[in-house]
Amino acid sequence: MRDLKWIKLDISMFEDEKIKLIEQMPESDTILIIWVKLLAQAGKTNANGYIYLNENIPYTEEMLATIFGRPVNTVRLALKTLREFGMIHIDEDSFIHISNWEKHQNVEGMDRARKLNAERNKRYRKRKKKQKLLEKKSRDVSVTSRDGIEEEQEEEGRKKKEDKEQEQQHTSEIIQFWDDNGFGLNNIQAKKQLLSWLENSPFRHPEKIILKALNIACKNNKRRLNYIEGILRNWENQSLLTLEEIENNEMKHYKSNKHENTISTDDGYNYGF
């Protein structure tokens, strides 16, 4: 969901002396194609310029030949050339690293995508852990006393009821706001899609954040689902995952805009627009 989809390429890359030297070599075009493919692979791995299958398994020349669709001898030549020119580094464990990766790439954006993925994985692991605990309780029923079984079932039923009531309350609040503020009383599909953010998002207390987005849409008279989801995706992409983080970010932008809209004149006074 919303993984990293791009890397940056310098428009003056072909003016670099290393690239010019490579262009004079046999197989120059293929070497440069493999260089760009390595950059793209580093972006896909999203590990500060490292390229690997996983954290324990580096790519071999044969693996890269398969992935890049090039003969292994050509890949071997390209890696040798790029290494000699200092464009890549291959450590003692055979892991490939793009030199000066942070200098050329949007590391902050890549780190944000990595954090979002980590947050989604954390939520997934939490759900799986809860599921395993319930399964364990079910297996342990056979060795508990009847009183213990009844007590455990009552507690589990109480928790399920509380969770369901809380979920229904959050759903009801969002639908009520939608219906009361002119977003489309009969637009059932849009409501369902908006409610999916309660489960499929990295936000903490997503119901509060959805209501915040609805309020902004009302304020700007943009009562459309795509506008609301645009707001939510923007916060998600900025790693603003709590209501407090969102409101702090709004305050920071407000102060910044207020400062930018103030100009100084020769008489020593400031005039705000």
TrEMBL record:
* Listed Basic residues bias regions: 122-131
What species is given as this protein's source?
Virgibacillus phasianinus
Q: Which residues form the Phage replisome organiser N-terminal domain?
A: 6-126
Residues annotated as signal peptide: none
Give start and end of each DnaB/C C-terminal domain.
Answer: 189-248
Query: What is the protein name stated in its UniProt record?
Result: Replisome organizer
Chain spans, region Disordered: 119-171
Fetch the NCBIfam families from UniProt.
DnaD_dom, phage_rep_org_N
A Pfam family of this chain? Phage_rep_org_N
Q: Which Gene3D superfamilies match?
A: DnaD domain-like
**InterPro entries assigned to the protein according to its UniProt record, in alphabetical order:** DnaB/C_C (IPR006343), DnaD (IPR053162), DnaD-like_sf (IPR034829), Phage_rep_org__N (IPR010056), WH_DNA-bd_sf (IPR036390)
Q: Which domain of life is it from?
A: Bacteria
Q: Where is the composition biased (Basic and acidic residues)?
A: 156-170
Write out the similarity annotation: Belongs to the DnaB/DnaD family.
